[in-house]
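Subject: Sanity check before I submit

Could someone independently write out the structure tokens for this chain? I want to compare against mine line by line before I put it in a report. The sequence has 491 residues.
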Amino acid sequence: MFLGIDLGTSEVKALLLDERQHIVATVGERLALQRPQPLWSEQHPQDWFDATDRALQHLAAGQPAAMAAVRAIGLSGQMHGAVLLDAADSVLRPAILWNDGRSGAECTELERAVPRLHDIAGNLAMPGFTAPKLLWVRKHEPATFERVRSVLLPKDWLRLQLTGEKVGEMSDASGTLWLDVAHRRWSPEILSACGLGVEHMPRLIEGSEVSGLLDTRLAARWGLPAQTPVAGGGGDNAASAVGIGAVRPGQGFVSLGTSGVIFLTSDRFRPNPASAMHAFCHALPGTWHQMSVMLSAASALRWVCQLLGQPDEQTLLDRVATLTPQQQAEAPIFLPYLSGERTPHNDPAAQGVIFGLTADHGAASIGHAVIEGVAFGLRDGWASMGVSPAEVQQLSLVGGGARSALWARMIATLLGVPLVTHEGSEAGGALGAARLGWLCTGAPLSTVCTAPPVRGRFDPDATLAGPLMARYERFCRLYPALRGQFPSGVR
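---
Independent answer below. Compare away.
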């Protein structure tokens, strides 16, 4: 057995995988999010460990034989979060998360302080990344900053609790802005601009390497073998790619989770910071990936369901499916920037907009506008990746939004690429984490990182393409027209 632990924003998920690629059991424990001020998003790291403890105790009670057979553990986690530790490894303040937007001014400062930032890190400075968060702490909480001796990403803080080792890996470290992504090592130049040094950073390994051994007391508590190795693991999206077998050039996925992601594996470093596209290391040696990120995807559908008083997302999607082509063409246009936006605008001040409402529009029309607006945002991200027509044969579709055939056809048509869903894809990063644990035992990539069985396929629809592209052109004109009306701030 191999155990994957995925530290997400909304839950910790644990998964047991056997050597036949069969998911034996999964369990999730919910996490709370704190937003003490506008733009802020924080969590208490201790809550992560407590949720992990509950999840693994649940597995130990329900699957004692499987837990006793675990040969390795892998970790996956939400990226970019800043966990600040003092000299005694005590947490100094709540972790500042990936979707925190407070550090816009610090992004501008970092870009000015390090003219070579884009060449080294391969990415724009954005509030979601870790480095600007530390600049914000240095400016606004100087007493706390003076006590910082280590900075860890969320899953790497959890690793510290599991193994006593301060270790990071390449895919997650790419999201800090402190990594020299092409050379897969920390950048002293960028760290220095943030008042830090390499000594504040964890030791770096590849995601498929052993990072340490599970603490013997925890092993006994959870019914796991003593000396169980813990793999480097991966950032959530890189781990998800490992989970669905996107480990070779041209393979990738579209994720419709809280955020919306297009992920594409590459055998080289391919940055495009001008379009706010991310270029990161993959969780596997000698492999990189491109990634476009929009901050609101399936979360936008949840939001509009609550706004319209719908009982659940599927009920609203069923109503959307009843619209005629004419009603779809006359629906409002939705800008999906409910939490600002990354790719391609890099604008934390951007806001959501429902444009073109009339008295004829009801819940179905507004629901259509929302899923379409998210699909348009993904199309923006796809354009930023500079993919040649023959480079990608298909993409996997993962995340909660993957359950909607309507949404899947819309996205496939806008990207011009078939989408496939897989059995077990809802396991996400936890499955990839378990596979990275498996790899750290020496198992070959070809055995471990296979694509799960295909559940469904959605091809681009020529009858949808014309009407969708006409509305997409309107969508593209709205953001520049409204940009000056959003709250002022550093952009």
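---
OP: Matches mine. For the report I'm noting this point. Residues 245-427+461-491 form a domain with the Nucleotidyltransferase; domain 5 fold (CATH 3.30.420.40).
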